[in-house]
Each structure stands twice: as C-alpha cells, then as structure tokens.
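re the bet — no i am not wrong, look at it urself. input seq straight from the record:
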Amino acid sequence: MTYLDWLIVLVLNGSIIVYGIYLARGTETSSDWFLGGRSLPWWAVGLSMFATNVDNADLVSVTGSTFKEGLHIISVYAVGSVVGGILAAFFVVPTIYRGGFFTNAEYLEARFGPSTRVLSALIQLQYRSSMLGLILWSSHLVLTEMVGMNASQAWGLIVVLVILAGFYTAYGGLRSVVWTDVAQGIVMMIAAVVIFVTIWQAVGGWSGMLAELDRTGRSDMVHIGRYWGDHGTTPPWMVVVAWTIIGSGYWTVNHTQTMRLMGSRSLWDMKMAALFGVTLSLPIMIVSASLGIFARALPDFQTIPDAAADTVYPLLADAFLGPGLKGIIVAGMVAAIVSTFDSMGSALSAIFTRDIYARFLVRDRDDHHYVIVGRFATVGVLTLGFLYLPFIANQQNMIQAFTTLISVFATPLLITYLAGVLTPAHRRSGLIGLAVGASYGIVAFIDRQFYGDEWLPVWFTSRWTSFGWSVLFTGGAIALTTLLLGRQSQDQLAKTKDSGWLLRSREELPALREHPFAERVPVWLNPIPWATLCLAGSAWLVFVTFW
C-alpha cells in the first residue's frame, strides 16, 4: 500500500463517515431513529440493502468458497435472495408494516405470544452477531494478507472502524445508515469491477480459465450440478434447496434487512426496494464467486491449500493490483465493513431496546430515554461479534462456519414467520415449532462440530441436509399443534401487552401509504411482473447457465 492508496481510502471512506455524522444531527424521535420516519424512497432502501447484503465477509469468503468447492454458492445470491426478497417484501414485512410494529419480533408476540417474541429477539441477536464475527475475521485477513499489517495493527484499525460506525449509527439511526450505505454501495461496486477486470485479463478471460481447469481436471467447479456436498453424497438439487432456505432466512428473519423495508415510505417502495437490492447484489456476488475459480486457473495460486482458501481474495488483490487500484479495493472493503457494521448496529439495538429492554425491563419512560438506550445498545451489540472469533478461526473456511450456524436457530425462526403470515397456524404452535426445530438444530450442530458427522447419519445432520430437516421438524410441529388445537386466522392478532412508550411510539407512526403516486401505480412499475422476471432470471442462471 502506497501513500496514494491510503489517500484514496481516507478520502472515500472518511467523507462517507463524516456525512453519516452530519446526517445524525436531526434525529430525535424514536420513529426517526428506528424507522427513518417511514420516509425512505425505494432506490435508497434498495442500495442500502445491497450494501448490507454484500459485506466484506461475503467478498472474502465467497472467493474462498468457490476456490475450494466451485460455483454452487451462486445459488444463494440468485434463487435464494430473490425468493427471500419476495417473501419478505410481498408477504411478511407488509403484514408487520400494516400492524404498526417496529420490529418483526413485535409481530410474533401478537401472532404467537410473548415467549415467541423473546426467543425471536434472542435468535436474531445470536444470528446476526455471528455474522459480525465473520466480518471481523475477514477484515483481519484483508488487512494482514493484502495490506501487510501485523495482527495488532489490523485489530486496532478494525476496532476504530467499529467505533466510527457505531458513533454515527448511534446518533443518526436508520436514516443515517441508509444514506451512508448508498454512498458505500457505489464505492463497493467500483471496487468489484476493478478487481474483476484485472483478474479476468490475467487469466485470459472465461475461455482461458476453462482451458486451464480442463487441463488440471477441475472443470466440474464451474457447474453447480456437479457439486455433491462435503461427503460426495448430497444431490446437487438439495444443495440448491439449502442455499434457497438460507437466502430466504436472510431476507425474512434478518432485521437488518426487514428494518430497512419497514422504513420505506410506502408498500410499493418496499417491494421495489427488495427487488432492486437483490438485483444489484447478484452481479457483484457472481464477480466475487468467479474470482475463486479464476484463482484455480492461475499457476501461482494452485498450490494454496483448501484450508487457506479464505486468503485467496486478499492475495489476488495484492498480487495483481498496482498503486491506486489497490487503494480502491481497500476503500471498497472498508465501505463493506462499515456499511454492515452500521446496519447490524441499528437493527440489533432496535431489537434489544424494543423487544427486551422496553418490553420486559423498563416499561414506561419517555421517548428520549429509549432513543438514548438504543444508541448505547448499538455499541454494545457490535462488540458481540468478537465472541465468535475463536469458533470461526477453527473452521475450514468462513462459509462453513456460516452454514454450520445458520440452520440451528435462524431456519426454525424463518418457518415460524412464514407460518404466522401465510397459514392458519394456532397461536400456541409458534413457540412449539420454534422449540422443536431449534432442538433438532442443536443436536445436528453438536454432531457436526464435535463428532464430525459420525454420531448420527450424515443424511440426517450434515450442513446441507440439516436445512431440510429443520424445515420439516419446525413445520411439522406447527402443523401437528394446529391439527390438535384448531386453526386460527393469521389476521386474528392478539393485543400485545405493550404499554407506555411502546404503545405510544406505534400510535405516532406516520400514516400507512400504499404507494407514492398521485393516483395509481403505472402499469410498467407494477412490482409483480418485475418479481416474476427476477425469479425467472435467477432460475435460468442456476439451472441452465451454471448448472
């Protein structure tokens, strides 16, 4: 890294952080802090969702994953993200939005009871803080392997970035986060194009890469339909199903994304934002995935062991980028780091403040008190990610750490949300289904982590098949409970025990808007045809282009 590179990083990222601090000045009410006053346009929400979705852990870990296992991970950014985005923006979040709730956990109390709300809040805190750990670890890899920092310098800079992101997020809330994400997303796109074009030229394009993979006997890596899992026994379609469940859970359960959707100025903006966000994410993630395959075709990288696959991205950048270009890549990585830190900080602090602190601990203080609590909680939740570093460091790669953790609690929570919104599930079934699904998840996790899939059959607990079993256990328990206790309309929401500030803040939300147009939505801007096009395009990519 030259002085020019550091100047680029400082100017691009420093100006965005200063902008975030500037935006934070006018944030006073809980509606502004938690939901941006429900005033955010679709394109800003979509860019923010993209910037949050594509973090530096994705850029580093996806490259490492494809270097080791091939292109099957594209499934989560194609079919998984589109299905998840549609489920969230067309079904789940509109139900929460119309109910006047601030968080998705609030909705679960009205649908399934207070215990489900608490479990949902705790699961989301665990689920997203584990992702923070992945981001921290990938940041460390980039700073040590590419920038050349020693471990102490790298961790010192990471802590500074956490503090800066936490500062403007704590003061500005969702509005500051969304508008800084817009700028950070643009920087990330520029960085992705720079490194892709450079490595593309180095490897001789797609045809040059295919020729080298054929020569080394690795041509299967570019075909999703030829990946048979960790043990060589999992059908490729099952891997795609697992990635689809992961993608659906990310966009539906993850409050860092649903919080943005709930800050949209109308239901139309919400739907278009989700489609825009997933559409922007796909080409960037295909670029990142391709880098791992390109690296397999470069002679100097073919000797890197699979255990060190997560170092491939920073090593590529270090080997092939000159002064100036390297600074753009690091600026893009820093933008990805900060955009996800601020997103998770705002979302997780909202969950803690509303669903735990104000609901059960301190119930009736004024609006200013809870805004202050949310600000302090922002910094607190950002530190949780450091707790996962020992676990992540002991995994073969970051993607394995992520897929190992995600099926334990997040998948049962996804099925609980969908059952609440889409089916006549009984009120008691939510807690029962969540408990049964999580119990299976814990057993499968113990088998994978401590017994190497040798305690129980591989087909029952492997990291790919576990997603299907988690869906079956959770959904089966919800269905059986409903069969025994009776059906209940998803529209029959019980009155929550929210009182004081929780109730007042909901009553003070701006009026619900269907769309921002003077009369009706123009035919060519109807979200349904665009959603259909996104589904068809993503299915074509997975099952035709890369199959």
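see?? DSSP finds 22 helices and no strands in the chain. told u. also The longest helix spans residues 151-203. so pay up
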